[in-house]
């Protein structure tokens, strides 16, 4: 990929905790980054800035097209605009 091409939106999935030992939430982080290492670093920094004490990241990959449904559609658009978009959801314990 050369510098003139648009980079794809990266999605990182995992779990986050507001406080250590607390209730976990599922998380999808969407962003545009030059490489996977930068994407993970930016995701962790953004999660910490949002008050998450712990994060366990499971998978990273490039999005293949725009999501169909909210809140992921808005998160995808935010990532295209340079934001680090965080979507959280309840997970079974």
Q: Could you walk me through the main structural features you see in this protein, from its secondary elements to its overall organization?
A:
There is one protein chain. By secondary structure, the chain is an alpha+beta fold. Helix content is 25%, strand content 33%. The chain has a 4-stranded antiparallel sheet, with helices on both faces. 22% of the residues are buried. The chain has 2 helices and 4 strands, in the order E-E-H-E-H-E. The protein has helices spanning 36-49, 72-80, and strands spanning 10-17, 24-31, 54-62, 85-90.
Q: Residue ranges: pLDDT <50 for 5 or more in a row?
A: none
Order of helices and strands: EEHEHE
Mind describing the biggest β-sheet?
A: 4 strands, antiparallel
> Strands across the major sheet, in which order?
3-1-2-4
User: Quick one: overall form?
Assistant: globular
Q: Mean pLDDT, rounded to whole units?
A: 93
Organism: Mesorhizobium salmacidum
Protein name: Transcriptional regulator
Secondary structure elements and their pairing?
Layout: E1 10-17, E2 24-31, H1 36-49, E3 54-62, H2 72-80, E4 85-90
Antiparallel strand pairs: 1-2, 1-3, 2-4
Protein name: Transcriptional regulator
